[in-house]
Amino acid sequence: MSEGDKPLYPFHLIDEGEDLPWGHVSYKLADLGFKDSMIESGWLGGNTLSELIGTYFERVVGDNSFEFYGTQFPVMLKVIEAKAFQPLQVNVADDVAQQRYDSFGKTALWYVEEARQDARIALGFNKDVPAEEFYRRCKDGTVQEVLNIFTPRKGDAFLIKPGTVFAAGPGLKILEIAESSEMTFQLAELFHQHQVDASELMLDEAFDLIDFKKYTPAALRNPLHEVPKQSPYTKAISSCDEFSVSRIGLQNVLHVSVEDAVGFTVYYCLSGKASVQVPKAGSEPVRAGTMPLPENLDRYELREGQILLMPAEVTDFYLVPAEDGTDLLEIVVDNRKVRDSYTNENVEPSSFGDVRRDDSTDDNAPDPHVGYWN
Description:
This protein is mainly β. Helix content is 11%, strand content 33%. Helix 1 (49-61) packs across helix 2 (63-69).
């Protein structure tokens, strides 16, 4: 059997961390060019995520994702540990990112893994803010006075859409699930902390991207506080065009069987320990509901803080808890559509273009996480 014929398998990826003036970021799953996750083990061990997608694209992400994103992996996961307030930031929408920067935009979900009693998040404005007032406050260091700054709880989740200003404060550990992009602009320092060089602030360039209307933050359904004992699944935490996120309170063995390989799945372990068990290559398909577990299964461990990327090709597997209190997040990308400029309706993508991967050192070479709309 050639390598091209070998079946794919669940992928552990190696974390890539980065210390910043305000804290630490650990990239769990990234195909960003400047950050490219590496497969930890197995016959594809040592290859990067971009290399995996470049070779096995549809087998990894599925037909739906490939039609929209091409060879760009669609989502990114990173853990943010804030020891001080981040600079105030804003994300860029897909259409603007494409027009100005030939890049994907960024919609993000922040899931609060840990929160001290004095931890705080800044999210949106506490009133309608005139643009000139916001600009002045960014310059004189009083912008926090017009922001919603509040204390989140562990397990809260916030969907951060492009245009909404935001920042994480000290005492927070946040899992960010986002489009595969870092199209985020830093606007201003908060509380006179001076955590970044002034040259890294891009207020003028991002000014017309900001939504200056009053914003009322609301945590998405907090599934850590309400776990139905009769079912391992809760309702989705969030479902948007870019991705869907659900939480699994894994109390018993869960058999996952998908008839059609429509897409990949990412599992992130919030707490406890589990294993993902997959039928060995060449074995008979597992009949739905089979118990006890068959013997011909390969095991892939999943511990707190780890992820597993389940390729679209892997359509039959078990989620098996190894400890009480095992909680997982499940991330999927649904069939995305594009807006037809003539009909103003969402339609199937003819192709969302390919992602150029240029290893040259030319300063004018395109970003490796650029998407081209057709």
